[in-house]
Each structure stands twice: as structure tokens, then as C-alpha cells.
Amino acid sequence: MNLKTIGVFVFIVFVFNVKCYHSSGFGRCPKYIALRNFNVSKIVGTWYEIERTFHLMELITSCVSLNIWENERKQLQVTVRTISRWSGSIIINRGTAIPNKKIRSIFSYKVDSTLPNLLAKYLPGTGIYQFLETDYENFAVIWTCADLGIFHVDQIWTFRKKPFRSRIVSVDHLYNVRLS
């Protein structure tokens, strides 16, 4: 086997692994229909993760909750609380979600960090997030996508204001989100 053949083989294996372990596909990130009349103020409160698509970095976490409140600048302050499956310890991460000026259901999320901005923008969790569906009281479906050139990797979560819910209903929400 020559070097070019090995390179193509490695690339195919890499893409196959990304496809198996993430919700991904070739091409750019898909576009989802924006929620009409999205009310940022109604999102505040504590939300509990009910379901999520597979993501390697979240494999060791469980019992995820978001505590969201609006600051004086109309940005959302977010505290993410998880429990480590390995140690049982509580992990707290904080950040700021800045609503898009044109599409209010899309947010630019930045993890709070003392790192320089040049490095902080690459921290896990930092990125663009979109509320795909919500009734503000019972459930919210949140999606993010990373565009990696010739393919993309996306994640989707279902959250609820109450900690317990049937997973079957939650998975239905993941598959029935309005697509454009």
C-alpha cells in the first residue's frame, strides 16, 4: 500500500467513526426553522436534561441541569450542573448565552474562563445553540452544530422543568422537531 492509499483509508475510518459516535453528516450544518416570537425571558429557571444524542465528552456525566437567569444586559447567565459517573462529584460550569439580534432563539454561548479569548473560544461547550422547540413550562429542545468543513457534527438535548419524564416521549420530541 502506498502513502496515498493509507491516507484515504485513514480518512474513511475517521469519517466512519465520527458518524458512529456523533450525529453527523457530510456538508455544512443543517438549517432549522427559527421559533417565532421566542421570548428569552420565559426561558429562565431550572431545566433538567431528559435525553441527549450521544457525545463522547458527555459520556462521563449524568443528572445534568441548567439554571438560567437573565442579567441586566438581557443576556442569559447559565450554570450547568452535572454529576461525574466516575467519581460521583458535582461539576459546575458557568457561562453566558448572548441572544442573536435577528433570531432570538439562537444564542452564542461562552464558557466563563480566565483564559485569553483566543483560547477560551475553543473550550468544550462554547458555541452557537438554538432552541428548536419549547412551550417554556414543560420542555425545551436545544441543538448545536460544529461545521468541520466537509462534514458537520451536531448535538441535540431535550430538557424539562421537572426532573422526571418518560424517555419515550422525549425521544419523540427529538425526532419530530420541525426541519426546514
**CATH architecture classification:** Beta Barrel
Please write the CATH class name: Mainly Beta
For the secondary structure, the number of strands is 9
Q: If you compute it from the alpha carbons, what radius of gyration comes out, rounded to the nearest whole angstrom?
A: 18 Å
Which percent band covers the strand fraction? 35-45%
Determine the oligomeric state from the structure.
single chain
Tell me the name of the CATH homologous superfamily.
Calycin beta-barrel core domain
How many structural domains are formed by the residues?
1
Description of the structure:
This protein has helices at residues 3-21, 117-120, 167-175; strands at residues 23-26, 45-52, 61-70, 76-84, 90-99, 106-111, 127-134, 139-147, 151-160. It is α+β, with helices and mostly antiparallel strands and 180 residues long. The chain has one domain: Beta Barrel (Lipocalin). Strands 2-3-4-5-6-7-8-9 form an 8-stranded antiparallel barrel. A hairpin with an 8-residue loop joins strand 2 (45-52) and strand 3 (61-70). The longest helix has 19 residues, at 3-21. The protein starts with a helix and ends in a 5-residue tail after the last helix.
